[in-house]
Amino acid sequence: MRERAGEWRRVRAEHLKKYPACEVCGRNRNLIVHHVFPVSIAPELELSENNLITLCETPCHFMFGHFFSYHCYNRDVRTMAKKFRAQMLKRKCHTFK
After folding, report:
1. For the chain, how many structural domains are there in total?
2. In the chain, pLDDT over 90 holds for what percent of residues?
3. Is residue 97 part of a domain?
4. Residue of 56, 74, 72, 54 lying closest to 64 (CA atoms)
5. How far apart, in whole angstroms, are the C-alpha atoms of residue 31 and residue 48?
6. How many CB atoms neighbour CB 25 within 10 A?
7. Across the strands, what pairs with 54?
8. Residue 74: which residues within 8 A CB-CB, separation 6 or more?
9. What does the pLDDT look like over 25-60, one tens digit per residue?
């Protein structure tokens, strides 16, 4: 694994300040700043805001960011997150009686 760019900590902190919740489920704990295009294949995008999305570590990062395999990446993670979040906000919760 390659070492992160010197500016990564600052960029990550700024991103989390701007987007402080998982863009899929809305959680605000155990967050990861996920690279849409992995640094291993697009190192020039490591610090690019357009390549970052906030996801919770479990389960959204693994499901939406990697399709359940860290050998994969999801180039459509933003679109999928937005659609899933919209559906979650419209849902009606039925309770057990």
Report:
1. 1
2. 81
3. no
4. 74
5. 18
6. 17
7. 33
8. 36, 64, 65, 66, 67, 80
9. 999 999 999 999 999 999 999 999 999 999 999 999
Decide if 67 is inside a domain.
yes
Residue in this structure with the two tokens 């899929």, named with its chain if needed? 24
| Structural domain range at position 71 | 8-90
**Tokens 């704990």 correspond to what residue?**
29
For residue 39, being part of any structural domain is answered with: yes
Give the C-alpha distances (Å, rounded to integers) separating 21 from 6, 39, 42, 44, 46.
24, 22, 25, 25, 20
Number of residues in the chain: 97
pTM as predicted: 0.87
In this predicted model, what pLDDT tens digit does every residue of 63-94 receive, in sequence order?
A: 999 999 999 999 999 999 999 999 988 877 76
* Amino acid (1-letter code) at residue 32: I
